[in-house]
Amino acid sequence: VLTHFKCRNGMYPRSAIERFMVPDDKINWSVEYKEYKPPNHTANSIHGKPWADPKIGDPNFKPKWNALDKNVNRESYTGQYLIQDRYPLNPVGRTGICGRGVLGRWGPNHAADPVVTRWKRLLSGELELDKNHKPILQFVAIKRGDTGEWALPGGMVDPGEKVTTTAVREFQEEAINSLVMSEDDKKEWEEKFKSFFSNGDEVFQGYVDDPRNTDNAWMETSAYNFHDDKGDVVGALKLNAGDDAVGVQWVDAAHDIKLYASHEDIVKEVLKRRLLAIT
Ligand code: RP5
Ligand code: MG
Ligand code: MG
Known about the structure:
The chain is α+β, with helices and mostly antiparallel strands. The protein has a domain at 111-278: Alpha-Beta Complex (Nucleoside Triphosphate Pyrophosphohydrolase), CATH 3.90.79. It has helices at residues 163-175, 183-193, 263-278, and strands at 40-42, 68-69, 72-73, 83-84, 87-88, 98-101, 107-119, 137-144, 150-151, 155-156, 201-207, 217-228, 245-252. A hairpin with a 2-residue loop joins strand 2 and strand 3 (72-73). The longest helix has 16 residues, at 263-278. The radius of gyration is 20 Å and the shape is globular. The relative contact order is 0.19. Bound molecules: 5-O-phosphono-beta-D-ribofuranose and magnesium ion (MG) (2 copies). One magnesium ion (MG) is lined by residues 155, 170, 173-174, 243-244.
């Protein structure tokens, strides 16, 4: 079953607002919780931003919930979400805070996450093996500027953008720092890695337990694995943190790894699939 921990209890990110306490057995909307009075919070910083929705009740805002609304995807991977007094409801349940927080969209906020992987190698080029004689998978992780946690270099899908395009664009922005590259260098980079990034395996689509989620706005993502089996394609990559990332590195995909939001589940799924593919 779908549940959430990181967007429940404690302080809301970038605010002095504490979430209303939601015990495990009171998450589900169908369970009565009479005392439930979550604070209402929408960060001032998002008002008027081109990537943010207007306020609910704004006469010019006529959202089509559970649908592709012009080029904004308001469909949820979890199925139909409910609308209560004009506000979409988090499909997992209560988060202890209502409003949009720092998220731009009411309802689902769609992101994409690239999982770029290779096998760990010795200087000789041979595969390095762990104590169970299994090869060690590595993936590109970035350090988030907002929380300082290690994460996949993902980001929000722009209106009308293909989700696979988002995954590659965000990788370029956060792990290669393409935002400071000249147009020529960027073109060259794109040519070189075009075929590598043209066939990603979709490994996850769904709700993300993101600390920014609220009762009325939440993150969903599609994650794609781009794997370099021989290590000679992305092995040549020069990693360079950019945009909202403050660090970038190859990290061993271990079972006890700790990452931002639901990213550890995504990485574990990739690890499982990659190990299965070699045996
Ligand atoms: C997570 O937030 C997603 O999985 C994605 O990695 C990320 C998108 O938000 P920003 O990185 O743009 O803040 O929920
Ligand atoms: Mg980004
Ligand atoms: Mg990002």
